[in-house]
Amino acid sequence: MKTARTKQTYLAAQYRRLIARRGKKKAAVAVGHSILVAVYHMLRAGTSYHDLGPAHFDERDRKAIEHRLVRRLEGLGYTVTLQPAA
């Protein structure tokens, strides 16, 4: 699937995210479905495609990701203090 070989796109990030849980074939079908849904909405609204970017999934659930990673490091025996980058 060509979409999976692109680098800095929302669909490539979705493919890489799904491949870990569902495998290559199911991830490809899921991304294909996302493309079809996007095309349907673009045709219906008469708009063009706007890519959300590869960091969309990280930014969407930022607090949950921070909490999960801190908990994981603490489970390995580290003391973690988070400070935002300047």
Oligomer class? single chain
The total tally of domains equals: 2
Q: Radius of gyration, Cα only, in angstroms? A: 17 Å
Order of helices and strands: HHHHH
Helix content: 55-70%
Share in β-strands: under 5%
Q: Count of DSSP helices?
A: 5
Structural class: mainly alpha
The biggest beta sheet is recorded as:
none
Distance between the termini: 39 Å
Q: How many β strands by DSSP?
A: 0
The residue ranges in which pLDDT falls below 50 over 5 or more consecutive positions are none
Mean pLDDT over the residues: 87
Shape: elongated
Task: Write a concise keyword list for the protein shown above.
86 residues, mainly alpha, 2 domains
Short description:
The chain has 86 residues and is mostly helical.
What would you note in describing this structure?
This protein is mostly helical and 86 residues long. The protein folds into two domains: 2-54, no CATH class; 61-86, no CATH class. Helices cover 67% and strands 0% of the residues. It has helices at 2-5, 10-22, 24-45, 56-60, 62-75. α2 runs antiparallel to α3. The longest helix is centred in the middle third of the chain and has 22 residues, at 24-45. The protein is elongated.
Topology, element by element:
Blueprint: H1 2-5, H2 10-22, H3 24-45, H4 56-60, H5 62-75
Helix pairs in contact: 2-3
